[in-house]
């Protein structure tokens, strides 16, 4: 089964909570893939934007990338203020962004991802909008991925749509985590575990993921991370197994993955064998892969 290809201009931007004034965008493109919404707006005439996605997408957090020759912003009733750099990043849990103006050749990229999943992976995401003028490698990598997803007219398969949705959500959470981790007020051990959980969530499909690799990604010694998990009564290996088990549970109960064998599900979830998957499901859910799939797909 295929998912719809991107919408083409003209798009009713108001349906996504975007209001444009002073001019009309030259191009706009949108794609809804699974739980995420991607939107790109471009133009070459001065324009003013007000963005509030809370009504259109009430359950989504917003990552906003602005590229413009010159940008002004305002927070009512303050006057317009010039932003010294032309490229900026805005992160907000609840979709409301202070008005801004663009001039020259400009581009605005919106990424909307499920708030609950983003906050789970980046628990220090503050409720107020955050704006950054320093652009990092991770920010630009996310932009390039989303641009690629929006560039094609091709429809996506269910598996492609699921993968894009997962990746965009995890990348948004990684950007938030990258921007908030150093300012966290949470205890150090808790912050390290939060960062490790985000790494594990993103990489648990890799059967070669080990506690040592997780610690390397977080940027701390393996022993330090082991102690941090021990303080909460867990371990890195247990968290890797828990994430893989939860992923396998999701795949086994999803109609889109019914054609896959139990062995293929195990492989997709990062387990080295169907037996490893069976043991993990029995430990966490007290069931077997076949029983879980049968119950999930029984007529209701």
Distance between the termini: 23 Å
**Beta-strand content:** 15-25%
- Report the major sheet: 6 strands, antiparallel
Number of strands: 13
* Total domain count: 2
Number of helices: 10
The portion of residues assigned to helices is 40-55%
Averaged pLDDT, please? 84
Can you tell me the CATH superfamily of the largest domain? Jelly Rolls
Please tell me the CATH architecture of the largest domain by its name. Answer: Sandwich
**Tell me, what's the shape?**
globular
What's the CATH C level of the largest domain? Mainly Beta
Written overview of the protein:
The protein is an alpha+beta fold and 300 residues long. It has two domains: 8-157, Sandwich (Jelly Rolls); 186-296, Arc Repressor Mutant, subunit A (Orthogonal Bundle), CATH 1.10.10.60. It has ten helices and 13 strands. The strands form three sheets. Strands 3-4-11-6-9-12 form a six-stranded antiparallel sheet. It has a five-stranded antiparallel sheet with strand order 2-5-10-7-8, with no helix packed on it. Strand 3 (27-33) and strand 4 form a beta hairpin. Helix 4 (188-203) packs across helix 5 (211-218) and helix 4 (188-203) packs across helix 6. The longest helix is centred in the middle third of the chain and has 23 residues, at 158-180. The radius of gyration is 21 Å and the shape is globular.
